[in-house]
């Protein structure tokens, strides 16, 4: 008997307030609201059973509901829409709403609009990865450039300059080639079992890493990031135009 494929919820969180780039989710990037890039990527997925937008912005709600597969059925409560609101609380709120209206889900895929230039097919490939590895959560990561490797990082301490990482085995590394690889979260995709989310965790258990080699990755938090996204966009469009029009 064939095991049914897991039921998967896609969640796009789009809070109205932003100090770095005011109104950034609806701010036009090459003529399109920033959130549209993530909406289009989600709708291209063949594995997301339901796509839900969680926002406190009525303009974003109206815009998202114009997309064929996307649902923006509520305005997020005010206590979940501040800059201090934990993301896990937003995810739990959205999951409970989704399961009340569409039944239970096995995984939830978090897609932040601040990472607009995802590679085509990334969402479904990452979903297959977490399922194949039987992991509890998945995070997309990128390699930290050697110059910023934590084993070469320092902080000012009581005795002057001190190494951030104190492992004796790496104290004497002087050659770049000897550095152990280190990685950072890039914000493009998070996936978690819904059972983990109900425990108040977005990452935990067995964590799979999606090593992201997308050359056009950007996470927009500042005006400088926005400018970088504008510079990357034309090249990204040329690479992805055969998959979907931008």
Automatic annotation (TrEMBL):
Keywords per UniProt: Nucleotidyltransferase, Transferase
Transmembrane portions of the chain: none
GO molecular function, one term: N-acylneuraminate cytidylyltransferase activity
Protein's UniProt name: N-acylneuraminate cytidylyltransferase
UniProt key word Nucleotidyltransferase: yes
InterPro entries found in the cross-reference section: CMP-NeuNAc_synthase (IPR050793), Cytidylyl_trans (IPR003329), Nucleotide-diphossugar_trans (IPR029044)
Organism taxonomic ancestry: Bacteria, Pseudomonadati, Bacteroidota, Cytophagia, Cytophagales
Keyword Membrane: no
